[in-house]
Design brief:
CATH architecture of the largest domain: Alpha-beta prism
Strand content: 25-35%
CATH superfamily of the largest domain: Enolpyruvate transferase domain
Number of domains: 2
Shape: globular
Radius of gyration: 21 Å
Strand order of the largest sheet: 22-23-1-24
Number of strands: 24
Largest sheet: 4 strands, mixed
Bound molecules: ligand EPZ
């Protein structure tokens, strides 16, 4: 099992091109199921979750080529000419919950889907009840047994949907299902993340008729079939935010290229409030060492609020900020697993329900720590970059799910980090 060994205390500097957004590429790969024609995705991140989705689609007889390097980017070519069996088996779904994103497209395209229930993960129970309730509103017959969901529908019928709670993949699943439904579907209380608007761009390029994606109400006029398309995935705003924190926590000077600043509004605003110097330039976003970090409270919210996927990274930064910051996690019920590991490095963090109280600055010293989930592992690497001495981050596979060659990129930017096997 791979680990990272980090020698802290070196500033991160230089320039880095941020790759495509994993959480846009995943639903967009699933969208290929909606047509028999080729779909080409560019600027796809070469991360583990993308490979898992490729394996899942190939399991259904989808022709998948890539991801493979294509200049500075990577591309994936997909063709679901025929779908041999519309099933997402447990051994694949258990490694990646986003596999549930094949549910809507499969039942829309083939009239049937059998998908393993994803089960919980480190950060929470992660139910999919809202996905299933909405699919039933579109006329799907849903049964759940032996740990699997089965969905059947001769043809989905458009309906008015109101999500009790904002759900990112729930909105994506239903947008894809509604694209081939008969009649109009209106999704109220939709998630507004940029990845949803990007998925709609692809679906419309495939012939779908979707309006309002990126806002709270999405209108979809169903069509009888969709055709192929080529699409470039938007940059990964969470990877970008993670590197902004890397520059800030190490007192470096880093330019991020290929990012969309308007996808990072809440993150840029919060980091600026803490005294981090961030400049949006025409070539990207530059982060410079703060002349003294100040603490600031934050509460994670659905987009456009401060993203829960940046909460752990922000906590690492607040351990180095002067004052007390209260971090409130409103999206997931158990997303503070990184806190106890940071405390072992010298941080002063007290947990009270869905709030973490961080008192800083406290010097961090290198230690052996264990990653529990994708963003927690990123936060422990960030803490290691700022700590004095050597940090070993175990279970590096978590970080490989969502960050492409992170240790190589950080090395190129001046960090002392290496991957050790065993
Ligand atoms: C997406 O997960 C992202 N994953 C997550 O990123 C991200 O943290 C999350 O959205 C929130 O922004 C992908 O896009 C692949 P939700 P998702 O449905 O869609 C509850 C990462 O680090 N809920 O918006 O699974 C749920 O339990 C990952 O890249 C229900 O109760 O999140 C949670 O508390 C981690 N019933 C809240 O809603 C449902 O049917 C938001 O979940 C669905 C969700």
């Amino acid at each position: 099992m791979d680990k990272f060994r980090i020698e802290g205390g070196y500033p991160i500097g230089g320039a880095l091109r941020v790759g495509g957004a994993k959480n846009a590429a995943l639903p967009e790969m699933a969208a290929c199921l909606l047509t028999a024609e080729p779909v080409e995705l560019r600027n796809v991140p070469q991360v583990k979750d993308i490979l898992t989705m490729a394996r899942l689609l190939a399991h259904m007889n989808v022709e998948v080529s890539g991801p493979r390097a294509d200049g500075e980017e990577a591309r994936v070519d997909l063709r679901a000419a025929t779908i041999s069996h519309a099933e997402a088996p447990y051994d694949l779904v258990k490694t990646m919950r986003a596999s549930v994103l094949v549910l809507g497209p499969l039942v829309a395209r083939t009239g049937y889907a059998r998908v393993s229930m994803p089960g919980g993960c480190a950060i929470g129970a992660r139910p999919i009840n809202l996905h299933l309730k909405a699919l039933e509103r579109l006329g799907a017959e849903i049964t759940t047994e032996h740990g699997y969901v089965e969905a059947r529908a001769r043809r989905l019928r458009g309906a008015r949907l109101l999500f009790d709670r904002i759900t990112v993949t729930g909105t994506e699943n239903l947008m894809m299902a509604a694209a081939l439904a008969e009649g109009e579907t209106v999704i109220e209380n939709a998630a507004r993340e940029p990845e949803i608007a990007d998925l709609a761009v692809l679906l419309n390029a495939m012939g779908a008729r979707i309006e309002g994606a990126g806002g709270a109400t999405i209108r979809i006029q169903g069509t009888s079939s969709l055709h192929g398309a080529t699409h470039a995935v938007i940059p990964d705003r969470i990877a970008a935010g993670t590197f902004l924190v890397a520059g800030a926590i190490t007192g470096g000077n880093l330019l991020l290229r290929g990012v969309k600043p308007d996808h990072l509004g809440a993150v840029i605003e919060k980091l600026t409030e803490c005294g981090v110097v961030i400049r949006v330039e025409n070539s990207g976003i530059r982060v410079e060492a703060a002349r003294g970090l100040k603490s600031a409270d934050v509460s994670t919210e659905e987009y456009p609020g401060f993203p829960t996927d940046m909460q752990a990274q922000y906590m690492a930064l607040m351990t180095q900020a002067r004052g007390t910051s209260i971090i409130t996690e409103t999206i997931f019920e158990n997303r503070f697993l990184h806190a106890s590991e940071m405390v072992r490095m010298g941080a002063d963090i007290a947990l009270h329900g869905n709030q973490a109280v961080v008192r800083g600055p406290t010097p961090l010293t290198g230690a052996s720590v264990i990653a529990s989930d994708l963003r927690a592992s990123a936060s422990l690497v960030l803490a290691g970059l700022a700590a004095q001495g050597t940090t070993i981050v175990d279970r590096a596979y978590h970080i490989d799910r969502g960050y492409e060659r992170i240790e190589e990129k950080l090395q190129e930017l001046g960090a002392r980090i290496e991957r050790i096997s065993g």
